[in-house]
Amino acid sequence: MSNLIRFGVSLEKELLEVFDRYIKEKKYPTRSKAIADLMRKEIVQQRWREGKKVAGAIVFIYNHHRRNIVDRLIDIQHDFAEIVISTQHIHLSHDECLEMVVVRGKPSNVERLANTIRSIKGVEHCAIAFTSADKL
Ligand code: NI
Protein backbone atom coordinates (compact mmCIF):
# COMPACT_ATOMS: atom_id res chain seq x y z
CA MET A 1 0.00 0.00 0.00
CA SER A 2 1.51 3.26 -1.09
CA ASN A 3 -1.03 5.68 0.36
CA LEU A 4 -0.64 4.85 4.02
CA ILE A 5 -0.62 7.85 6.33
CA ARG A 6 0.40 7.72 9.97
CA PHE A 7 -1.40 9.92 12.45
CA GLY A 8 -1.45 10.20 16.21
CA VAL A 9 -4.57 9.65 18.31
CA SER A 10 -4.98 10.61 21.98
CA LEU A 11 -7.34 8.44 23.98
CA GLU A 12 -8.27 7.77 27.58
CA LYS A 13 -6.27 4.84 28.90
CA GLU A 14 -9.41 2.92 29.91
CA LEU A 15 -10.97 3.27 26.47
CA LEU A 16 -7.82 2.00 24.80
CA GLU A 17 -7.76 -1.00 27.14
CA VAL A 18 -11.34 -1.85 26.24
CA PHE A 19 -10.52 -1.36 22.56
CA ASP A 20 -7.48 -3.62 22.79
CA ARG A 21 -9.63 -6.36 24.33
CA TYR A 22 -12.11 -5.89 21.47
CA ILE A 23 -9.29 -6.18 18.93
CA LYS A 24 -8.05 -9.37 20.56
CA GLU A 25 -11.54 -10.85 20.64
CA LYS A 26 -12.08 -10.04 16.96
CA LYS A 27 -8.62 -11.36 16.11
CA TYR A 28 -7.46 -8.16 14.43
CA PRO A 29 -3.75 -8.31 13.62
CA THR A 30 -3.23 -4.60 14.36
CA ARG A 31 -4.97 -1.57 15.85
CA SER A 32 -4.72 0.12 12.44
CA LYS A 33 -6.76 -2.61 10.75
CA ALA A 34 -9.39 -2.50 13.52
CA ILE A 35 -9.69 1.29 13.37
CA ALA A 36 -9.93 1.29 9.56
CA ASP A 37 -12.71 -1.33 9.71
CA LEU A 38 -14.68 0.66 12.29
CA MET A 39 -14.32 3.81 10.18
CA ARG A 40 -15.57 2.00 7.09
CA LYS A 41 -18.46 0.48 9.01
CA GLU A 42 -19.62 3.90 10.16
CA ILE A 43 -19.13 5.48 6.73
CA VAL A 44 -21.14 2.66 5.08
CA GLN A 45 -23.96 3.19 7.62
CA GLN A 46 -23.91 6.90 6.89
CA ARG A 47 -24.04 6.28 3.12
CA TRP A 48 -27.10 4.08 3.70
CA ARG A 49 -28.78 6.83 5.72
CA GLU A 50 -27.93 9.43 3.07
CA GLY A 51 -29.44 7.28 0.32
CA LYS A 52 -26.17 6.66 -1.51
CA LYS A 53 -25.85 3.55 -3.66
CA VAL A 54 -25.18 0.33 -1.77
CA ALA A 55 -24.35 -3.22 -2.78
CA GLY A 56 -25.42 -6.20 -0.75
CA ALA A 57 -27.59 -9.23 -0.33
CA ILE A 58 -31.07 -9.97 0.94
CA VAL A 59 -31.06 -13.41 2.54
CA PHE A 60 -34.16 -15.29 3.55
CA ILE A 61 -35.56 -18.73 4.28
CA TYR A 62 -38.90 -20.13 3.20
CA ASN A 63 -40.84 -23.35 2.85
CA HIS A 64 -41.23 -24.03 -0.85
CA HIS A 65 -44.31 -26.23 -0.30
CA ARG A 66 -46.40 -23.19 0.55
CA ARG A 67 -48.80 -22.42 -2.24
CA ASN A 68 -47.57 -19.98 -4.90
CA ILE A 69 -44.61 -18.83 -2.84
CA VAL A 70 -41.99 -19.60 -5.49
CA ASP A 71 -44.01 -17.79 -8.20
CA ARG A 72 -44.53 -14.80 -5.92
CA LEU A 73 -40.84 -14.57 -5.10
CA ILE A 74 -39.95 -14.65 -8.79
CA ASP A 75 -42.57 -12.02 -9.66
CA ILE A 76 -41.27 -9.71 -6.94
CA GLN A 77 -37.69 -10.04 -8.10
CA HIS A 78 -38.77 -9.16 -11.63
CA ASP A 79 -40.56 -6.08 -10.25
CA PHE A 80 -37.20 -5.03 -8.79
CA ALA A 81 -35.11 -6.10 -11.79
CA GLU A 82 -33.41 -2.69 -11.75
CA ILE A 83 -31.58 -3.52 -8.50
CA VAL A 84 -31.42 -7.33 -8.56
CA ILE A 85 -28.07 -8.56 -9.89
CA SER A 86 -28.40 -12.28 -9.24
CA THR A 87 -30.17 -14.82 -7.11
CA GLN A 88 -28.80 -17.94 -5.52
CA HIS A 89 -31.13 -20.66 -4.32
CA ILE A 90 -30.01 -23.32 -1.88
CA HIS A 91 -32.16 -26.32 -0.93
CA LEU A 92 -31.50 -26.44 2.80
CA SER A 93 -33.63 -29.47 3.52
CA HIS A 94 -36.64 -31.33 2.13
CA ASP A 95 -38.87 -28.36 2.98
CA GLU A 96 -36.68 -25.32 3.51
CA CYS A 97 -35.03 -23.14 0.90
CA LEU A 98 -32.52 -20.38 1.45
CA GLU A 99 -32.37 -17.64 -1.12
CA MET A 100 -29.79 -14.91 -1.49
CA VAL A 101 -30.68 -12.01 -3.74
CA VAL A 102 -27.66 -9.88 -4.60
CA VAL A 103 -28.61 -6.26 -5.09
CA ARG A 104 -27.09 -2.93 -6.00
CA GLY A 105 -28.99 0.31 -5.77
CA LYS A 106 -30.51 2.94 -3.53
CA PRO A 107 -31.06 1.88 0.09
CA SER A 108 -34.76 2.82 -0.16
CA ASN A 109 -35.23 0.35 -3.03
CA VAL A 110 -33.24 -2.39 -1.30
CA GLU A 111 -35.38 -1.89 1.80
CA ARG A 112 -38.59 -1.89 -0.24
CA LEU A 113 -37.61 -5.19 -1.86
CA ALA A 114 -36.66 -6.72 1.50
CA ASN A 115 -39.93 -5.55 3.07
CA THR A 116 -41.93 -7.00 0.18
CA ILE A 117 -40.17 -10.38 0.52
CA ARG A 118 -40.57 -10.25 4.31
CA SER A 119 -44.31 -9.68 4.03
CA ILE A 120 -44.90 -12.92 2.11
CA LYS A 121 -46.48 -15.66 4.18
CA GLY A 122 -44.00 -18.50 4.47
CA VAL A 123 -40.88 -16.33 4.47
CA GLU A 124 -39.49 -17.03 7.89
CA HIS A 125 -36.53 -14.75 8.14
CA CYS A 126 -35.24 -11.99 5.91
CA ALA A 127 -32.07 -10.04 6.55
CA ILE A 128 -30.12 -7.41 4.62
CA ALA A 129 -26.32 -7.32 4.50
CA PHE A 130 -24.82 -4.39 2.67
CA THR A 131 -21.77 -2.34 1.99
CA SER A 132 -21.01 0.72 -0.05
CA ALA A 133 -21.31 0.30 -3.83
CA ASP A 134 -18.23 2.50 -4.16
CA LYS A 135 -14.79 1.85 -2.76
CA LEU A 136 -14.06 3.36 0.62
NI1 NI B 1 -35.13 -25.12 -2.71
Which ranges are low-confidence, i.e. pLDDT below 50, for 5 or more consecutive residues?
none
Mean pLDDT metric = 95
User: What is the C-level CATH assignment of the largest domain?
Assistant: Alpha Beta
- Largest sheet data: 4 strands, antiparallel
Output the radius of gyration.
20 Å
Please report the total strand number as a whole number.
4
Distance between the termini: 14 Å
The share of residues in extended strands comes to: 25-35%
Bound molecules: nickel (II) ion
Shape label: elongated
Strand order of the largest sheet: 2-3-1-4
Q: Which percent range fits the helix content?
A: 40-55%
At the fourth CATH level, what is the homologous superfamily of the largest domain?
ACT-like. Chain A, domain 2
Number of domains: 2
Q: What is the CATH fold-level name of the largest domain?
A: Alpha-Beta Plaits
- The helix/strand series, from N terminus to C terminus, equals HHEHEEHE
Q: Based on the coordinates given, report the CATH architecture of the largest domain.
A: 2-Layer Sandwich
Please identify the structural class as seen in this structure.
alpha+beta
Number of helices: 4
